[in-house]
Amino acid sequence: MIIRKIVLAVFATAMIVACGDKKGEKNSSESEFTRVGEPENMEVEVVENYFPKKEITPNVIQFYTIDNEKEFNQKFGVAKTMNNKVTPIDFSKNRVGVIILPETNKKATIEIEDTERIGSGAVIEYEITEGEEQSFSTTPALIFKLPGDNRLKTIEFKAGKEVNVIGVPEK
Questions:
Q1: Which one, of 73, 4, 5, 44, lies nearest residue 155 by Cα?
Q2: pLDDT digits (tens, 9 = 90+) for 132-167
Q3: Beta-strand (E) ranges in the chain?
Q4: What are the phi and psi torsion angles at 143 (to 5°)?
Q5: What's the CA gap between 137 and 88, in Å, rounded?
Q6: Is the dihedral of CA 102, 103, 106, 107 positive or negative?
Q7: Ramachandran sector of residue 135 (left: φ over 0; alpha: ψ -120 to 50; beta: rest)
Q8: pTM, whole model, 2 decimals?
Q9: Are the C-beta atoms of residues 157 and 122 closer than 8 Å to each other?
Q10: What's the CA gap between 161 and 137, in Å, rounded?
Q11: 79-109 burial, b for 16+ CB within 10 Å, e for fewer?
């Protein structure tokens, strides 16, 4: 009889925990940073003619910032030809933001549609366009310059209803 009561109590506790209130949990499409302050325009400049090195090919879309040349050079190579111009990056004034997709054999482009700064946060709205199949695979990435100051603490990346928030480490 005692074992039956213990089993019943354990079962009841498990049911309460499993069906408990989940108000504190966030959906992956919900923003995690608080918007404090008035929105202001934030200029970003797309960095041209760099490619992700094979070592950083992700399995899922990734977002991050880089604030020093050494780390940037470990992850990206220069795609210099005779006819193009590589965008210079001054890490004393800027950091870079990166949106990188998994390797694919389809043509894919990532474009920033809108940016704004709200207090210590930023919102970057972007769109991914997938095109035709190619005879080779690539790792699509968008690299862009961000303000290098330490006021920026979080970045919210938005594509439609999908939202990802990352923290920005201090320089």
A1: 44
A2: 999 999 999 999 999 888 788 999 999 999 999 999
A3: 39-41, 45-46, 50-52, 62-66, 76-78, 94-100, 104-118, 121-138, 141-147, 154-159, 162-167
A4: -115, 135
A5: 27
A6: positive
A7: alpha
A8: 0.77
A9: no
A10: 28
A11: eeeeeeeeeebebeebbbbbbbbeeeeeebe
